[in-house]
Amino acid sequence: MKQVIEANYRQVKTDVMQIVESEMERIKNDPDLQHLIQQE
User: Fold this and answer.
1) Which tens digits make up the pLDDT trace of 5-40?
2) Which one of 7, 19, 27, 38 is most buried, counting C-beta atoms within 10 A?
3) Could you tell me the superkingdom of the organism this chain comes from (predicted)?
């Protein structure tokens, strides 16, 4: 049971990172949203 929970936790963490990366890329490429992120 603990292994299943840990596997699910790792999967959720990975999924969230992928969502964040894809959304940040989408925001960077959208002129109307670019102001929402700081430029490096």
Assistant:
1) 999 999 999 999 999 999 999 999 999 999 999 876
2) 27
3) Bacteria
